[in-house]
Design goal:
The chain is α/β, with parallel strands linked by helices. It has a domain of about 160 residues: 3-Layer(aba) Sandwich (Rossmann fold), CATH 3.40.50. Helix content is about 50%, strand content about 10%. The strands form two sheets. The protein has a four-stranded parallel β-sheet with strand order 2-1-3-4, with helices on both faces. Helix 4 packs parallel to helix 5, helix 6 packs across helix 11 and helix 7 packs parallel to helix 9. The longest helix is centred in the middle third of the chain and has 25 residues. The model has no long low-confidence stretch (mean pLDDT about 95).
Length: about 400
């Protein structure tokens, strides 16, 4: 897509823009997590920028000076990224916001505050998000989160501004979902393209980002939707986060001839789905976030009514994937524990399943390559067998 070049250019220019805005008195809030209500940060007149990075062994090693090596590799690298403080984007972060959806993210928040002398705001998240008491708790936590930002930065949440912000973010979500749907059958737009566009949106100004999304949809719509790739393994990605920089698994799949057609990653499409904010209030935003498909780190034992499983089935069906690669990071226990139950459910429905357990290191590249190659061959053989029958 031609628009990708323009988007990448704007992402590269963004740190200098943020530096200028900060010189004019603006505040940049770096956030990490799944349930941080970005609309509230934006409506307060602050600049939200998601902080996420992966795939760099040196940053992992640096992060291990601050946290145990038995913490997940994503958190170790995140701390190394902040500690190194060399990236032009990270240098523009004034304060950090973390949620407690994943307890390792909560641990990162404690360490950023302790070691790096940064203001840190933590949003509490209930474990059992279905109970009314849990929803009441999250509303109060979100209201408290907003009050802390208001007090610290001398701003006040304006409900009209919040209404306009919700409308802006809703339009962004609509366009991202459009692009995601287009790539399922497009000969020109790939899942990787959409993934990269999603990552860019966490850095760019939101109004400009919407304009770029509209241009991307217009460009994508100009090409035929149908792609004759029935003999190509269609792969769905699930499991732990795949942040910018962690492209090892993606590259191996695509280089071996697999076609990624969908995901339910919290670094991918999942945060944009089913987010229904019914009223333009702090509580309305909080409930919108809590009532969408839950993050896999949250416990839930009744598989038949698990919204995570329901959404996974729905997205696998939508993308017509014939294989799921379930990616787990070392010491990402919640996703590792759920891999077997996810496998049983998908295999029952005729979907091939492969779990890849990895770290941000080059040492496992060859073994992952071998396993993915065998998995793709198995899918191809199954497809050919069905065609013959």
């Amino acid at each position: 897509m031609k628009i990708l070049t323009k988007i990448q250019k704007r992402v590269a220019e963004r740190p200098a823009e943020l530096a200028k805005l900060r010189s004019q008195g603006k505040t940049v809030i770096g956030w990490s997590g799944y349930n941080i209500p970005e609309e509230l940060i934006y409506a307060l007149g602050l600049i939200p920028v998601r902080v996420a990075v992966g795939g760099d062994e040196k940053l992992v090693e640096l992060g291990q000076r601050y946290v145990s090596s038995r913490n997940c590799v994503y958190i170790r690298e995140l701390l190394g990224y902040i500690a190194e403080n060399k990236d032009p984007l990270i240098q523009q972060i004034d304060a950090y916001a973390f949620d407690a959806t994943c307890l390792q993210t909560f641990r990162a928040a404690e360490l950023v505050e302790y070691y790096f002398n940064k203001d840190v705001f933590v949003l509490g998240v209930p474990r059992n998000f279905y109970w009314k008491e849990a929803q009441d708790y999250f509303v109060k936590e979100t209201e408290y989160f907003v009050s802390l930002l208001e007090e610290k930065y001398g701003t006040k949440l304006d409900l009209q501004k919040l209404k306009e912000t919700i409308s802006l973010y809703n339009r962004i979500r609509e366009k991202i979902i459009e692009l995601y749907t287009i790539q399922i059958d497009s000969a020109v737009v790939s899942w990787v393209d959409v993934y990269n566009i999603i990552q860019a949106g966490y850095t760019l100004d939101k109004a400009e980002y919407l304009e770029l999304l509209e241009q991307a949809v217009e460009e994508a719509d100009a090409y035929p939707r149908e792609k004759d790739d029935n003999d190509v393994p269609r792969i769905f990605l699930s499991g732990s986060i795949l942040p910018p920089g962690d492209s090892k698994l993606i590259d191996i799949i695509t280089n071996l001839g697999g076609r990624i057609v969908g995901d339910d990653l919290w670094s991918g499409i999942l945060p944009y789905l089913d987010l229904d904010i019914k009223e333009a209030t702090t509580g309305g935003v909080a409930l919108g976030y809590l009532n969408r498909t839950p993050h896999g780190a949250l416990p839930y034992l009744e598989l038949e009514s698990d919204r995570r499983i329901k959404k996974l089935r729905e997205l696998v069906g939508l993308s017509r994937a014939n294989g799921v690669v379930y990616h787990t990071l070392r010491y990402c226990d919640p996703y590792s524990f759920k891999s077997l139950e996810t496998k049983h459910i998908l295999v029952k429905e005729g979907i091939q399943f492969l779990e890849i357990h990895t770290e941000y290191a080059s040492s496992d590249t060859e073994s992952i390559h071998t396993r993915i190659e065998a998995f793709l061959e198995m899918i191809e053989n199954n497809v050919l067998t069905k065609e013959v029958v």
